[in-house]
Amino acid sequence: MNKVSKFVCFILIGASVLLAGCPKKPKRPDPSATTVGMGPSGMSLSPTETNVNPDTLGTGLEKKPEGPDRYKEENLERGVLPTVYFDFDRSGIKASERVKLEQAAKWCAENKGKQVLLEGHCDWRGTAEYNLGLGDRRSNAVKEYLAKVGVEVVRLEVLSKGDLDAKENGTAAEMTKDRRVEIVIIKQ
Length: 188
Fold this sequence. Notes:
Layout: H1 3-20, E1 37-38, E2 44-45, H2 54-57, E3 76-77, E4 83-85, H3 98-110, E5 115-121, H4 128-148, E6 156-162, H5 172-178, E7 180-186
Parallel strand pairs: 5-6
Antiparallel strand pairs: 1-2, 3-7, 4-7, 5-7
């Protein structure tokens, strides 16, 4: 190749790199279309598919609200059980937070038949998809811990809200409160 051909190739490659730019941030999915949890076969389940027939399981669980109304605020009871907080970009449960999970497990043992929703949250940093995944990993970590200390898995439901409820451009203190799993009672 001569010098002119090399120069033209360099200019064309440089221009294509500059014009390509960065991809735009994808649109946030509708919360009702997000994954609630994984089924026994490893497939994603929708909120209505996670309902379990208590009669066939012999658990004594009461019939749960079904469909899109399942996770409406009027069907949830917040503040009874403690909230578990996480470090930035982490889904591992800190030793200091395990005491809260022991309290939640004790409450579950005293309140047989009650369903619990483990609602995963993140701070505003990161893409919507990443934060939904991180919220899911956090709530599943809490689910696994509660199962290990004796809570029946059939009573635990997982929902990731990602950064939907996070304060955008929040302070460090606000972001610390956004990185959490809320343990919510589902009214029956």
